[in-house]
């Protein structure tokens, strides 16, 4: 104590003795520098000297490798490098940046160091810019100066941003949390995201709670039997493929397929439980897990429980495959929120608890959660209970989680942040509360639904066992990566129900391939690169200029604006294709009809339908009904011989429908290409005309059948026809003048004279009345015949076979 007091007294004495030195130290900006100009001058000199010294170092290549071979140079480089890394880490710590720059145990250490330096430079330069602006008198935080007549835009209140209240008070709006400038979390991942066009391989290397070990596949062929040493190389490769084929199939199979197939539900889970009431959220402890030590401790707690609830928060807009951003786990006593972006490479530790068959994992709608766990963390679930499957088994009004919360817990869930950007760090308090509520009440709902399943089935466990089996099927799902093929665009076109010509279809195919390739390279979703409706718009319009492509998009995607010239070349390549009409797939039973079609190919057309024909002589068809269009192409295809291809059931029905049509204008068809029955030649009143396309043998056979059914003409008509055929034409006679002496001149005797060709007004009125009567009679006969034909045609139409 005395010595310390003496030291304090001596120090105080020395301070009192040198008051001038203290004033000088207080007036200095930094130790050794009086003002900013002196500091800047010294700093610039140091930077220049360092730059000159670095220029004198050996250049990368043979020169550097030569100097590197000397031990002294190597030790000097390592020591100086450690000092530089230490200085850089101190500067990063001073500015609040990540400073793990001296860690050399990572395989990608150089890339991570470069990323850290770039991020730190951005932070430091941004801060320097802000300070310089403040020194110049510019304050970025103050409100901008607005014109006098300017009115700020009003907040639009709609159903998506209105929060309703059950107390009857006025509804209130809320702000939509979004991440405008969030650092991409993919850049911080230790294991880079695999967006390649290859199948997904499970990310599991250690299999806890295993009944069957993981398959071991050797990278190179090994021969375990001594006789294999004398086998030729080609045959040895075949033998090795046969031996390892089973292991390769196991490598892509579900790792816990065997364990889930042999999982048995204990009796305690099939009996009626006593629902354990949940604790209020204000009285429940909440733990944020963002370090490896905390994750290991959490795994130890979960392994000692009988059940726990799990939920995930996912982001898919700024990633090709998607990112799991958050995991919520709730027990009966405590809630946990795991930052999966920070612990992405260590999440596989939880497999010990997630695959334990004695622990129940409660999910709601786990179809997507199971795939996300496999894709991002290599996590698998054994002994799963899905409350969504239980809700379907109970036939509830709705199967959503908010309905279950309202029905069982009388809690109004807040779904404002369901579509929020969960990459935001640090998470706002309201988003943490929203994520926590998804699993806090889930265990109580699990107890209530088990009890209701037993009560609805009169105490028998059959319905509850069915829910367990369906939940097991959900846990058996495997994640499948989106694979790009040359025909992938056809599936999207079918879903959009669009019809393209050859130019539009080619452009659509090229844009689809470009979008998929760029999205995989940039790790962005296809909707962010180029939304589907914009891609269809560009394919339909086929712009001639890059400005036209931008005009088709509102708002314009950032990557499209950067690559607009490349897109313009793709559109030009599509425009160079010959313009043809593309028919859709025949299996969809929706066929494209060209604008004009020959009337002879369409059996529903008669000669009176060509009144509005085109100049080419073919009728102009209007695509009003799908049935007429399909009958046209089906009739066109069904004309092919039956021996060439077998018709399906749909084609057979179409053939029967087409054959059932009766043309009402059959009598008025032209005689060209038609076969006229022999009996009709001798008895025209029978009006027997037949249009036959069959060969000559079939024509003769049909004539025999028709001849038996039709009445035979009289013998007189037959004989007169034969005589007319047998008589030879008379020979040509020479011209002779008329001999009036041989004429019968009885005209003047008062007998009836022949009709004169001169005009007689008295006789003209009588002849006109006779012609009118005859024409009226003929029109009546024609009308009656047409009426009979149309009634017959209507009867045929009612007797069409049902489709």
TrEMBL record:
Protein name (Swiss-Prot/TrEMBL): Exosome complex component 10
Named cofactor requirement(s): Mg(2+)
List the GO molecular function terms.
Answer: 3'-5'-RNA exonuclease activity; metal ion binding; nucleotide binding; single-stranded RNA binding
Could you tell me the Gene Ontology terms of the biological process aspect for this record?
Answer: DNA repair; exonucleolytic trimming to generate mature 3'-end of 5.8S rRNA from tricistronic rRNA transcript (SSU-rRNA, 5.8S rRNA, LSU-rRNA); histone mRNA catabolic process; nuclear polyadenylation-dependent antisense transcript catabolic process; nuclear polyadenylation-dependent CUT catabolic process; nuclear polyadenylation-dependent rRNA catabolic process; nuclear polyadenylation-dependent snoRNA catabolic process; nuclear polyadenylation-dependent snRNA catabolic process
Localization per Swiss-Prot or TrEMBL? Cytoplasm; Nucleus, Nucleolus; Nucleus, Nucleoplasm
Any one Pfam family here would be DNA_pol_A_exo1
Tell me the keywords, alphabetical order: Cytoplasm, DNA damage, DNA repair, Exonuclease, Exosome, Hydrolase, Isopeptide bond, Magnesium, Metal-binding, Nuclease, Nucleus, Phosphoprotein, RNA-binding, rRNA processing, Ubl conjugation
Q: What is the lineage of its organism?
A: Eukaryota, Metazoa, Chordata, Craniata, Vertebrata
Q: Can you state the subunit structure given in the record?
A: Component of the RNA exosome complex. The catalytically inactive RNA exosome core complex (Exo-9) associates with the catalytic subunit EXOSC10/RRP6 (via its N-terminus). Exo-9 may associate with DIS3 to form the nucleolar exosome complex, or DIS3L to form the cytoplasmic exosome complex. The RNA exosome complex interacts with cofactors C1D/RRP47, MPHOSPH6/MPP6 and MTREX/MTR4. Interacts with MTREX; the interaction with MTREX mediates the association of MTREX with nuclear RNA exosomes.
- Residues covered by region (Disordered): 1-28, 699-736
Task: Assign the protein's first listed, main location to one coarse class.
Answer: cytoplasm
Q: Where is the composition biased (Basic and acidic residues)?
A: 1-24
The entry's family comment says: Belongs to the exosome component 10/RRP6 family.
Q: Which InterPro entries is this protein grouped with?
A: 3'-5'_exonuclease_dom, Exosome-assoc_fac_Rrp6_N, HRDC-like_sf, HRDC_dom, HRDC_dom_sf, RNaseH-like_sf, RNaseH_sf, Rrp6-like
Instruction: Tell me which residues make up the HRDC domain.
Output: 501-581
Gene Ontology cellular component terms for the protein in this record: cytoplasm; nuclear exosome (RNase complex); nucleolus; nucleoplasm
Annotated organism of origin:
Poecilia reticulata
């Amino acid at each position: 104590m005395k010595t310390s007091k003496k030291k304090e007294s001596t120090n105080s004495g020395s301070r009192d003795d040198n008051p001038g030195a203290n004033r000088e130290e207080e007036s200095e900006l930094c130790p050794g520098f009086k003002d900013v100009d002196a500091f800047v001058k010294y700093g610039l000199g140091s930077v220049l000297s360092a730059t000159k010294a670095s220029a004198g170092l050996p250049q990368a290549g043979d020169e550097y490798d030569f100097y590197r071979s000397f031990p002294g140079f190597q030790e000097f480089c390592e020591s100086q490098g450690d000092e530089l890394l230490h200085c850089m880490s101190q500067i990063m710590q001073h500015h609040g940046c990540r400073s793990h720059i001296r860690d050399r145990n990572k395989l990608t250490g150089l890339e991570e160091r470069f990323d850290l330096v770039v991020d730190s430079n951005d932070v430091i330069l941004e801060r320097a810019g802000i300070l310089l602006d403040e020194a110049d008198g510019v304050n970025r935080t103050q409100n901008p100066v607005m014109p006098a007549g300017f009115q700020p835009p009003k907040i639009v209140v709609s159903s998506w941003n209105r929060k309703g209240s059950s107390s009857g008070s006025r509804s209130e709006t809320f702000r939509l949390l979004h991440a405008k400038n969030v650092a991409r979390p993919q850049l911080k991942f230790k294991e880079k995201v695999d967006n390649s066009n290859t199948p997904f391989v499970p990310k599991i290397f250690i299999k806890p709670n295993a009944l069957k070990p993981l398959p071991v596949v050797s990278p190179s062929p090994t021969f375990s039997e001594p006789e294999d040493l004398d086998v030729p190389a080609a045959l040895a490769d075949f033998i090795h493929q046969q031996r390892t084929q089973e292991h390769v199939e196991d490598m892509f199979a579900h790792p816990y397929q065997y364990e889930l197939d042999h999982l048995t539900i204990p009796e305690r889970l099939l009996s009626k439980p006593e629902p354990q009431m949940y604790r209020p959220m204000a009285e429940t402890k909440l733990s944020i897990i963002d370090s490896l030590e905390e994750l290991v401790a959490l795994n130890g707690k979960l392994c000692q429980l009988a059940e726990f609830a799990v939920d995930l928060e996912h982001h898919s807009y700024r990633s090709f495959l998607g990112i799991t951003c958050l995991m919520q786990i709730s027990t009966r006593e405590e809630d946990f929120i795991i930052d999966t972006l920070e612990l992405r490479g260590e999440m596989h530790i939880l497999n010990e608890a997630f695959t334990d068959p004695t622990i129940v994992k409660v999910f709601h709608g786990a179809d997507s959660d199971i795939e996300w766990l496999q894709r991002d963390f290599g996590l698998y679930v054994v002994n799963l209970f899905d409350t969504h499957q239980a809700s379907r088994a109970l036939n509830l009004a709705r199967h959503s989680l908010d309905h279950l919360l309202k029905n069982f817990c009388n809690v109004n869930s807040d779904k404002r942040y369901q579509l929020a950007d969960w990459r935001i760090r640090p998470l706002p308090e309201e988003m943490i509360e929203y994520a926590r509520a998804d699993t806090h009440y889930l265990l109580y709902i699990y107890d209530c639904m088990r009890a209701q399943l037993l009560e609805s089935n009169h105490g028998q466990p059959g319905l509850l066992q069915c829910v367990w089996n369906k939940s097991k099927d959900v846990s058996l799902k495997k994640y499948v990566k989106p694979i790009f093929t040359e025909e992938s665009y056809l599936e999207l076109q079918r879903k959009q129900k669009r019809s393209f010509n050859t130019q539009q279809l080619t452009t659509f195919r090229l844009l689809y391939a470009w979008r998929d390739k760029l999205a995989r390279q940039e790790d962005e979703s296809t909707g962010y690169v180029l939304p589907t409706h914009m891609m269809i718009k560009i394919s339909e319009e086929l712009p001639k200029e890059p400005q036209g492509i931008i005009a088709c998009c509102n708002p314009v995607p950032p990557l499209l604006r950067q690559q607009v010239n490349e897109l313009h070349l793709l559109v030009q390549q599509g425009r160079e294709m010959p313009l043809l009409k593309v028919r859709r797939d025949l299996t969809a039973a929706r066929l494209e009809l060209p604008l004009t079609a020959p009337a002879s190919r369409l059996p529903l057309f008669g000669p009176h339908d060509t009144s509005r024909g085109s100049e080419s002589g073919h009728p102009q068809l209007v695509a009003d009904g799908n049935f007429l269009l399909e009958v046209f192409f089906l009739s066109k295809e069904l004309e092919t011989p039956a021996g060439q291809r077998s018709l399906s059931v749909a084609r057979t029905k179409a053939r029967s429908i087409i054959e059932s049509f009766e043309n009402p204008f059959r009598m008025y068809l032209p005689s060209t290409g038609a076969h006229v029955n022999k009996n009709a030649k001798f008895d025209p009143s029978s009006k027997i005309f037949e249009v036959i396309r069959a060969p000559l043998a079939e024509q003769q056979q049909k004539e025999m059948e028709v001849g038996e059914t039709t009445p035979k003409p009289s013998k007189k008509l037959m004989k007169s026809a034969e005589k007319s055929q047998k008589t030879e034409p008379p020979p040509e006679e020479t011209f002779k003048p008329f001999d009036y002496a041989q004429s019968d001149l009885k005209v003047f005797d008062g007998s009836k004279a022949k009709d004169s060709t001169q005009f007689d007004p008295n006789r003209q009125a009588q002849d006109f009345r006779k012609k009118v009567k005859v024409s009226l009679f003929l029109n009546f006969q024609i009308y009656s015949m047409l009426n009979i034909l149309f009634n017959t045609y209507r009867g045929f139409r009612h007797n069409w076979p049902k489709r």
